[in-house]
Design brief:
single chain; alpha+beta; Multidrug efflux transporter AcrB transmembrane fold; OB fold (Dihydrolipoamide Acetyltransferase, E2P); 2 domains; five-stranded antiparallel sheet
Length: 406
């Protein structure tokens, strides 16, 4: 009885803390964070081209070769291929291939495609061979194929193979826990694809939306993995506190550091979409999602350690159990902070190599919007991870220490 009384008290305190940052205030704050930016882009503008935000004219051929609005994409398999000397001096060779379509309404039909191969080119370095799996871009009209083009190499088979190996290892090593893990992964993917992304496209504020979604993911994941008990409740409280703090800290530092959210090409492309999306709010929402996995991992690890200590010594006091959980958390903290920071650094290695190669001044590097953004991502997430450790340990000690069941 006492344990559940403590759970109710802690729930009330957690709700009170979260209510200090209400959704309405976050929406108002993120509205103020969107800067009036003018992107410095130089390009030749054709009056017939669509204005960003308007629906393009489907009858206009923007690139001079084919109409993207009428393209459909299908899988294909190269049946035969012939090489020819390239007329273009910059091209390595020309290829003509017969391809069988293997998906969609035209499955089984064969089309002929032409392809230019340039050995050292990043985009035109696809050398066609018999049996090769490719993606076709098909221009169709009145239920028939007008033209077909080589779009890209089909890479999905390797991805599916890797996914199957991952799932099999989860089941082989984790057994029942592996099944639970697959369920939680499926739920997380469902929330992202069916809830977060559609609502963002409808114009919902990113930070409140992602925060509430993250809390839902945390609760579902930890309850499925750990069950409905004190261990899961302690992990939930610690994880929610850590993720929420990471988001608030990133928001505050981003404001004083004047982070724009336009540090990536993808963010700049979103700016020209029809939908009105708060780019800067999207940046901080991404930080919350990025820290979610590591903080959840730490919260559950500390809570599980406390539960195991309690099982080995049922008469352990609240203070001793909290101290034991903190000791475990400190060991985890060193490795997981490294993991979180290295995950962000790993994606930025080409950029870091570029900056190092050009011997840019440190003052210029550290004040770049992209570098500052990645720095805030890594450090804010790590701070959230660190905070989740003592919170989880204290809650676990209160719920599972001596006298909790009395």
């Amino acid at each position: 009885m006492l344990r559940w009384s403590k759970i109710l008290v802690i729930s009330w305190i957690l709700g009170l803390l979260l209510s200090t940052v209400p959704v309405a205030s976050l929406e108002a704050q993120t509205d103020d964070l969107t800067p009036d930016l003018e992107l410095d882009m130089e390009f030749e503008y054709n009056e017939e081209m669509p204005v960003p935000g308007e629906i393009p004219d489907p009858d206009y051929d923007y690139d001079g070769s084919y109409d993207y609005d009428r393209l459909e994409f299908y899988r294909g398999k190269v049946i035969s291929v012939s090489d020819y000397e390239a007329a273009d001096p910059y091209a390595t060779l020309e290829q003509q291939a017969e391809v069988e379509i293997t998906s969609g309404p035209y499955s089984g039909e064969r089309v002929s495609i032409d392809s230019t191969y340039i050995e050292d080119d990043f985009y035109l370095n696809i050398y066609l061979e018999e049996g090769m799996r490719i993606i076709l871009a098909v221009n169709e009209a009145e239920g028939a194929i007008q033209e077909a083009y080589l779009h890209d190499v089909a890479r999905e088979r390797g991805l599916y193979f890797l996914l199957v190996v991952f799932l099999l290892l989860l089941l082989l090593v984790g057994r029942l826990q592996g099944v639970k893990t697959i369920i939680t992964l499926g739920f997380t993917g469902l929330v992202i694809i069916k809830v977060i992304l559609p609502l963002l496209l409808r114009g919902y504020e990113p930070i409140p939306l992602v925060t509430l979604s993250a809390i839902g993911i945390i609760i579902f994941t930890l309850v499925v993995i750990g069950g409905v008990n004190a261990k899961s409740f302690a992990a939930i409280v610690g994880t929610v506190c850590g993720v929420t703090l990471a988001g608030i800290l990133a928001l505050w530092v981003g404001e004083i550091s004047h982070l724009t959210g336009f540090s990536t090409e993808e963010a700049q492309m979103i700016y020209f979409m029809e939908q009105e999306i708060n780019i800067r709010g999207l940046l901080f929402a991404g930080i919350i999602v990025g820290s979610l996995g590591a903080v959840t991992d730490v919260g559950m690890s500390v809570a599980s350690a406390a539960a195991e200590v309690r099982e080995a010594n049922p008469r352990i006091s609240t203070m001793e159990l909290t101290r034991s959980a903190l000791n475990v958390g400190r060991d985890i903290m060193g490795t997981m902070s490294n993991t979180l920071v290295l995950a962000y650094v790993g994606g930025a290695i080409p950029l870091l190599l570029l900056l190092t190669g050009y011997e840019m001044d440190w003052l210029e590097i550290i004040n770049m919007d992209l570098i500052a953004t990645e720095f805030v991502r890594g450090i804010a997430g790590s701070i959230g991870l660190i905070v989740s450790i003592p919170v989880t340990a204290i809650v676990a000690g209160l719920l599972m220490g001596k006298g909790a069941d009395e």
